[in-house]
Amino acid sequence: VLGFLSVTLFFLLSFGREAEVSASQEAYEDVQWTSDSNSHPPWLRFHLNISRWQLYLHRDPNMEPLTQQLATHRIVSAVQKSGGTQLKLVMSFPNYGQAMLKPMKQERDEETNYNLYYFSDFERHNAEIAAFHLDRILGYRRVPPVAGRLVDVVKEIKDITTDRKLARTFFTSPVGNVCFYGQCSYYCSTEHAVCGRPRHLEASLAVMLPDLSLASRRTWRSPWRRSYSRSKLAKWETEPDYCSTVKKTPPYDKGTRLVDFMDMVILDFLMGNMDRHHYETFEKFGNNTFLLHLDNGRAFGRHSKDEPSILAPLEQCCRIRRSTWLRLRLLSLPQYRLSDVMRASLFSDPLHRVAPLLSEPHLASDCCSRNYQQSVQVSLLINLKERLCNLISIWQS
Ligand SMILES: *[C@@H]1O[C@H](CO)[C@@H](O)[C@H](O)[C@H]1NC(C)=O
Ligand SMILES: *[C@@H]1O[C@H](CO)[C@@H](O)[C@H](O)[C@H]1NC(C)=O
């Protein structure tokens, strides 16, 4: 495990948490943590138990309290997260836990406009939530836990924020809803304001990873990154033998990196995410470690069409991790159909009470099943396996 314990406790006790925590000290609880993990709040237990292979355990007893707190714990501070392209807030809880909030911007059954490039698509709060569930169902456990929440934008953001730039963007819409838009490089304007109904706003809250000063991360450019240009194609789109180059290039030439990458490709394909230009790992674990699946807000944008190009790496390299392959096969059995498992899993999210997190067309198609055996996605994988993948080496991982 990361073994942050002593450093984290020292850091917290001596400095409080980050400059971003700026609410008055009375809002926070007194810290009475010892080396006994029973005395730790769920977020700290989560941080301390991150391992080289996964963010949390299969059947982790800490997951329920952790997501429960994300969904219900009192919010004592809300400030904008600097740096991103779209509006995000860092929320703090009385026990010094923190979460990243992404607001609802789009109705669930709306599809991304076909004329919009993937890099200018909205980030969706429900995609963040659904990605966490899908990643867990696939057995990866590489997405930080996320829960949905109805946030009172007045009491839980406007009234408590110390972020003046954020506070200045609040207004009341013509129908009396409280709205705000914050500051960022995409969609932070009156025309793209996020609005409560009249003050309750749906949002996703993702638990923050350990601070970068405690657990630095390395960012890797995806070899199958899209060109992010309206006119150019990427190398992988034009070179048929692209994978043989990648396979010879460190770190894809050794260990499990290539199959780890394929795991991420499968997740992205199932949720229609074209925006995976980079990925991250924890520096401390070196190259032989899992890939973090962060930033999934642009997934689940379309349910009426799959995007086969997301599978290009799998098609070109013809590699898949054995445990992932077995999991996909399991999720294709009638009793474990991916769409059913997803539906049941999403049912546990608090926002499910407001409305199902993925609209039925999504569950019936994009995400998972397309009536399972006919599933374009899964059958594509199966065909890949059968047509091309006599070559697949069985990876021990
Ligand atoms: C941390 O992980 C270990 C196994 O790796 C497990 O036994 C323990 O219960 C976990 N602790 C917490 C607080 O979740
Ligand atoms: C990890 O991969 C990078 C990039 O491929 C390489 O430069 C570095 O030497 C590798 N580190 C180890 C410990 O193998």
Automatic annotation (TrEMBL):
<feature type="binding site">
    <location>
        <position position="123"/>
    </location>
    <ligand>
        <name>Mn(2+)</name>
    </ligand>
</feature>
<comment type="similarity">
    <text>Belongs to the FAM20 family.</text>
</comment>
<feature type="domain" description="FAM20 C-terminal">
    <location>
        <begin position="170"/>
        <end position="364"/>
    </location>
</feature>
<feature type="signal peptide">
    <location>
        <begin position="1"/>
        <end position="23"/>
    </location>
</feature>
<keyword id="KW-0333">Golgi apparatus</keyword>
<feature type="binding site">
    <location>
        <position position="295"/>
    </location>
    <ligand>
        <name>Mn(2+)</name>
    </ligand>
</feature>
<feature type="binding site">
    <location>
        <position position="123"/>
    </location>
    <ligand>
        <name>ATP</name>
    </ligand>
</feature>
<dbReference type="GO" id="GO:0005794">
    <property type="term" value="C:Golgi apparatus"/>
</dbReference>
<keyword id="KW-0732">Signal</keyword>
<keyword id="KW-0547">Nucleotide-binding</keyword>
<keyword id="KW-0325">Glycoprotein</keyword>
<keyword id="KW-0067">ATP-binding</keyword>
<feature type="binding site">
    <location>
        <position position="86"/>
    </location>
    <ligand>
        <name>ATP</name>
    </ligand>
</feature>
<dbReference type="GO" id="GO:0016773">
    <property type="term" value="F:phosphotransferase activity, alcohol group as acceptor"/>
</dbReference>
<feature type="binding site">
    <location>
        <begin position="206"/>
        <end position="209"/>
    </location>
    <ligand>
        <name>ATP</name>
    </ligand>
</feature>
<dbReference type="GO" id="GO:0046872">
    <property type="term" value="F:metal ion binding"/>
</dbReference>
<dbReference type="GO" id="GO:0005524">
    <property type="term" value="F:ATP binding"/>
</dbReference>
<feature type="active site">
    <location>
        <position position="275"/>
    </location>
</feature>
<feature type="binding site">
    <location>
        <position position="102"/>
    </location>
    <ligand>
        <name>ATP</name>
    </ligand>
</feature>
<keyword id="KW-1015">Disulfide bond</keyword>
<feature type="binding site">
    <location>
        <position position="280"/>
    </location>
    <ligand>
        <name>ATP</name>
    </ligand>
</feature>
<dbReference type="GO" id="GO:0070166">
    <property type="term" value="P:enamel mineralization"/>
</dbReference>
<dbReference type="InterPro" id="IPR009581">
    <property type="entry name" value="FAM20_C"/>
</dbReference>
<dbReference type="Pfam" id="PF06702">
    <property type="entry name" value="Fam20C"/>
</dbReference>
<dbReference type="InterPro" id="IPR024869">
    <property type="entry name" value="FAM20"/>
</dbReference>
<protein>
    <recommendedName>
        <fullName>FAM20 C-terminal domain-containing protein</fullName>
    </recommendedName>
</protein>
<feature type="binding site">
    <location>
        <position position="295"/>
    </location>
    <ligand>
        <name>ATP</name>
    </ligand>
</feature>
<keyword id="KW-0464">Manganese</keyword>
<keyword id="KW-0479">Metal-binding</keyword>
